UniProtKB/TrEMBL annotation, chains A, B, C, D:
Cofactor: FMNH2
Positions annotated to bind FMN: 125-127, 237-238, 281, 296-300, 322
Record-given protein name: Chorismate synthase
Top-rank taxon, per record: Bacteria
Alphabetical list of NCBIfam families matching this protein: aroC, PRK05382.1
Keyword Magnesium: no
Family membership noted in the UniProt record: Belongs to the chorismate synthase family.
High-level lineage: Bacteria, Pseudomonadati, Pseudomonadota, Alphaproteobacteria, Sphingomonadales
Residues annotated to bind NADP(+): 48, 54
Short name of one Pfam family: Chorismate_synt
Organism: Sphingomonas jeddahensis
Subunit structure: Homotetramer.
EC number: 4.2.3.5
GO BP, one annotated term: amino acid biosynthetic process
Keywords for the protein's UniProt record, in alphabetical order: Amino-acid biosynthesis, Aromatic amino acid biosynthesis, FAD, Flavoprotein, FMN, Lyase, NADP
Length: 355, 355, 355, 355
């Protein structure tokens, strides 16, 4: 079944294809009386917008969001919020070859195997263009949890990582890579340019931190905060791995090393470390929530690769058209949006059960 | 909200605490006319059962499952299947100290922060004992998808990995570590013994492969097969990371390296690689599904660590009682169960929408 | 929580207010490869359209539906189908009085009590205008279950019932009341006209029959076919009662009278009666599904009635503006749509669990 | 799909068959720190217990409930509450004939049509015995909304109604019919006795009122309070009709008659009438919630009736075994339980979205 709704009580449903007339999200369950206009949403979409630097796809989409329902006189009414973004710059002619042959790494073959049929234009529903709707919905989520600050950045591109010691929050918005390390950003400029020129692509790691999440949010056992975050992040196009806190590195630690010791603090415990990434037993501890996501390299590459056609014949395919050389970069606002959406949902769940 | 149900149409709900009278699962949505008796479930529980070697907790639980509903004359009827396991070997006296102070790394503090109150005996609901119910439910899931083979193993303990070249499927059940590499198993024996004797603990990485999953299973966009697997695996106690296919390693690859090329095959494509771990666009490609999980070291350690009490005072706590020195080992049947549960659900979802 | 999604696997979400720019539905879970264009949906909307006779509201809305996603080359793709209808003929000035005082029978006071705030224009979200989105979604549902014929009619207006002996299917679309009894239709013309001229309103009873539903559809126990139908019908504006089969009349029968005897038939049993309305134990028996709905009189009336203002003061209010004198009439296509939506969902659920 | 879970955030799942070893409910989402022991649940089960008078089935079940999880030291912990009731007095031999032939009015044929196979003993899962689990869960729901008083009674049996003017709350628990009118109770004694002796059965109407529900509870549009109540009530065995407020009678009223006029009150409006049954636009108005349910006569009768066998041959069947001559009587605590369960859920939903 095609489940295009996410969330338990703060829920959003997205719709739309890469080359259809529009795409959108319906946000349901938003509390009333929250200030919300297009101006609260647009900046987040602008952050994700294509065509803003040579390191992202050259598709030109204004991505102007319209609120079609759910607000009145600039405030939410508690009814569903319909958000809509028109597709402007489709060039469907670019994708004629894709209609016949499957692009390795893309969802082409899988969609045909499932549905027997697909909208092949720009990847149809499986296109990362859908993430614009998530980012719009995420902006509503942020408005629901104003005390929470969510901040993501790129930590590595093509295996080249930032220097944690050089982390500078102010840098993140100062370069086209959302990179907190100016030196790394300079290296990546060269690296991504080279990939772009070669028609190749690069993977990336995105890190995200949410501060201001009160201890207690989380819904054990099968809507655990970390479980929901994992589902949310893994549902993003191209993501192949998710970590909470130390993630895979924790598997190499001893219990003594991994223990986040506590001391009496002003308001709850002061933790001496945060290996857990702010979550224990699926519930927030009050420490910063730390999440990491691995983005595979964009599957669209110019190098011709072996594949098969719809009729099962051997073929070669090179993906022309406009693509991000490193889809992880524009993944930054999407990761933030998904984290916001999970946290807004968990906030409402928490106050349902626990006041 | 306390969401203790997992799944969309093949759903299970678990209940029970570590030191309550019993625990169980209710499996709902199971198709009718499937052969199912306790004998089909017990072997999987036995695989997870504590006290079978010195490398697991010494709590002695027979973990005998009873089917209380949903079958008739040895076959499922399509109605809810209630599975129940009694707790026999609780020793609640071991946990008196835990009532007052929070064990770092455990859910103690988070549960109190959320609920204002907790069943501290053996971790209560947050205990890994709950995973017995998952394994029982997972056995039902396996019966729903008999063509799928699900196999997990331990890939690394405390940072010491198996040699992929030495992988031997037959070894997995031949040692107490579910280790496919005999040499690694020998090393781990020493390593885990040392940790156990020192009252310390170790993390682990568990790998799982599911073969026989037909191309087409998966429910994009927010019940994607990989998203559901991520949620399922991350909901397991102590798991801090999940990977599909190459996972984080994919972030260091180029598009050319990562492309799973296809050639015409007898029945669908023959793939030349499986970086994707058998999933594209959230839909199975027909290749083996590959999932990895990072287990942190058991948080219960004998070394006294700084913490605070319920009333906010400074304290030290050492976790006495019986524990797994490496919780990842017994995580193997749990990972398998969760993968089975996701796949059974996706199978039913697929035939709902696509026949 | 504002739950604006209905259905288990065939799900739809509606959004939109009476006087917003547009309203719509997102249909999720629709099987692929079903022929679907605007032309398949529009006739059902036309049936519900306001302003078609003097017996319905004089608001003039073309109610032209647009499909914004989920189809490709005239067929469904298995991805979410976004349906949108623009609001054209809002006259928001009609509702200024409503902003300050609560109309008895309307949702005004309840919405304010819940949300602290409301879009008062035309009833905002609580307006029956939302049912246009249901009818659009229902047209998609019909396409999913082409073997099922769903037919509703008005059975009584203001306490004046049709003569069952005069039932003529051909009459239903031959008068503005969806009335299968020509004589009753003639009486109602006078009756509704009188109410309209007096600024009064009338209640109605709508009956619906679905034939061609195979024995076996239904999802016991809490998604029983009759339970889902009851929820669906009761969610329609102004509905205050739902019956399946004989409904309340069954409470006066003896067991012998109520038994639907069976004889061997060509394909399953031949039933000698259908007191059950085609459903037993929450599962379809293969007989026609029979549902009845009671619509209260439209709450909008010209007679001034006692009420209070937002600030709690005494007031009188008469509802000016354009309204249906008998909202049950236009309820006919809405009841049909809801029945179609439930049946499409149950069809998919059935084939998920039972093939 | 077999959906045996009800509720959005306060959810319960039931399991068990009439003649299995036990049946039960798992209540999930209950807030923590609520006083709850078996003694809080048992009285409600006792009210529904069979064998307490000659007007109910002679099956003797103590229906002793056990809480197996979710409480600690007499208070809820916020984790799932597993409630279990053993079946003691099964006499499966009574049902051998039912294995081969379908009882008209029962779910026998429908279950076979759906599942191809059924547990025929006592109706298996379709038996009203399952409602014991609902009543147990309902007792937990009551504890969640202590300010709400829920009270049901029998309003008519076999077409013989109480005199509303004779309504006496104190009478309801003073006779075996939950009848608020002593004179009617006397008549019913004769009537039900006659039916019982004749091996016949009678239908009934049950009325329920919930007071103390604050204005604002309700979750429009598809989890409207009335819609949820309709689903809940219609899911009860033998129920064929549901009304809110005036129900079908409202269809005969004019808008002037139906308007619930308001005057300024101490705390919100004072309503001059309650045709709406306490719900407008799917949201509680603060007036008493009024619900009515029509129960068909018990389908088990001694008179042999025409039917068919599993293999499609003609047959006659008379239902021996122990049955309620009027299943509506024991429906009273079940209706109350379902109303409580819906209200507890709506309470939590409301505070999730609206504080």
């Amino acid at each position: 079944m095609s489940f295009n709704t996410f969330g338990r009580v703060f829920r959003f449903t997205t719709w739309g294809e890469s080359h259809g007339p529009a795409l959108g999200a319906v946000v349901d369950g938003c509390p009333p009386e929250i200030t919300l206009t297009e101006a609260d949403i647009q900046p987040w979409l602008d952050k994700r917008r294509p065509g803003t630097s040579r390191f992202t796809t050259q598709r030109r989409e204004p991505d102007a969001v319209r609120i079609l329902s759910g607000t009145f006189e600039g405030r939410t009414t508690g009814t569903p919020i319909s958000l809509q973004i028109e597709n402007i710059d489709q060039r469907s002619k670019d994708y004629s070859e894709v209609a016949q042959a499957y692009r390795p790494g893309h969802a082409d073959y899988a969609y045909d195997a499932k549905y027997g049929f697909r909208d092949y234009r720009g990847g149809g529903r499986s296109s990362a263009r859908e993430t614009a709707a998530r980012v719009a919905a995420g902006a509503v989520a942020r408005a629901v949890i104003p005390g929470v600050r969510i901040r993501a950045w790129v930590e590595a591109i093509g295996g080249d990582s930032i220097d944690p010691a050089a982390f500078d929050d102010a840098q993140i918005d100062a370069n086209p890579f959302f990179c907190p390390d100016a030196a790394a950003a300079a290296r990546w400029e060269e690296k991504v340019d080279a990939a772009r020129k070669a028609g190749s692509s690069l993977g990336a790691i995105v890190s995200c931190e949410a501060t201001g999440v009160p201890a207690g949010w989380g819904a054990p056992l099968y809507a655990k905060l970390d479980s929901e975050l994992a589902a949310a992040i893994m549902s993003i196009n191209a993501v192949k791995g998710v970590e909470i806190g130390d993630g895979f590195a924790a598997a190499a630690l001893s219990g003594e090393e991994n223990a986040d010791r506590m001391r009496p603090g002003a308001d709850g415990p002061t933790f001496l470390a945060n290996h857990a990434g702010g979550i224990a037993g699926g519930i927030a501890t009050g420490q910063p929530i730390r999440v990491r996501a691995a983005f595979k390299p964009t599957s669209s590459i110019l190098t011709p690769v072996e594949t098969i056609t719809r009729t099962g014949d051997a073929a070669e395919i090179a993906t022309r058209g406009r693509h991000d050389p490193c889809v992880g970069i524009r993944g930054v606002p999407v990761v933030e949006a998904m984290v916001a959406l999970v946290l807004a949902d968990q906030f409402l769940l928490h106050r349902a059960q626990c006041r």
